């Protein structure tokens, strides 16, 4: 009988259950069908019965062992409870994550032909985690990596941090729209937008909004998947009495 025509859930008097019946584990003197809907319940009850039997047998062996110990007889090591459920613990969690990682890597190799599913950002390179090329650059030394020499990497610095932007020579290399930012720490220009006049790390006199702009770009390069951090810049000291760079926009 379809439930659509039996909205009131009246029993179907014509239905005949052909499945064999067994004793109901929860209600004495009652039989229950072994139909598919009841199988999980019956299987769980059987599991609990087996666990109880194993536990009772273990308790009996434990009692016999204690009696032998009381008599001074030699016994073997104490047997753990076979029904005791082990906690996952930290080791279990680590093992689980390792299995998940291996599954992802092997699936990537099988489906896409690459363990990392084609990802080739900075997080896929060991030098991101164990930087072997971290070094301290001077302002003059950093100029050697402005893209003029195609044999050398292309570096850009912002507020003291140096990033390798060689993967985007079209933008930061000679002729690129941001070539003025290459080979130098032009942190001020990132905040003011004066790319020609503010190619300096001098951040004196910037407004809160302009400082937020510098912070935004610092985070951009730090988090960029293709621009690895390669070092720091040791800047020449700025004379506090020197004039603050003039803004390219007279209104500002």
From TrEMBL:
Top-rank taxon, per record: Eukaryota
Protein name, entry field: Cytochrome b5
């Amino acid at each position: 009988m379809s439930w659509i025509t039996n909205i009131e859930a009246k029993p179907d008097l014509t239905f005949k259950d052909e499945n064999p019946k067994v004793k109901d584990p929860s209600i004495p003197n009652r039989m229950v069908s072994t139909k598919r809907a009841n199988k999980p319940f019956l299987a769980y009850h059987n599991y609990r019965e087996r666990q109880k039997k194993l536990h009772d047998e273990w308790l009996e062996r434990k009692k016999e062992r204690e009696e032998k110990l009381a008599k001074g007889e030699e016994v073997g090591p104490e047997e753990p409870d076979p029904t005791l459920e082990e906690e996952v613990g930290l080791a279990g969690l680590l093992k689980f994550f390792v299995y998940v990682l291996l599954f992802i890597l092997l699936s990537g190799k099988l489906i896409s032909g690459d363990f990392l599913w084609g990802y080739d950002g900075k997080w896929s390179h060991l030098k991101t985690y164990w930087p072997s090329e971290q070094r301290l650059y001077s302002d003059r030394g950093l100029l050697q990596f402005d893209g003029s020499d195609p044999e050398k990497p292309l570096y850009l610095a912002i507020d003291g941090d140096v990033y390798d932007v060689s993967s985007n020579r079209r933008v930061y290399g000679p002729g690129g729209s941001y070539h003025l930012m290459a080979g130098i720490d032009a942190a001020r220009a990132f905040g003011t937008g004066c790319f020609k006049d503010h190619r300096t790390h001098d951040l004196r006199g910037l407004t809160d909004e302009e400082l937020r702009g510098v912070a935004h770009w610092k985070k951009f390069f730090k988090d960029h998947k293709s621009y690895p951090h390669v070092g720091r810049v040791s800047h020449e000291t700025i004379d506090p009495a020197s004039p603050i760079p003039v803004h390219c926009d007279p209104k500002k």
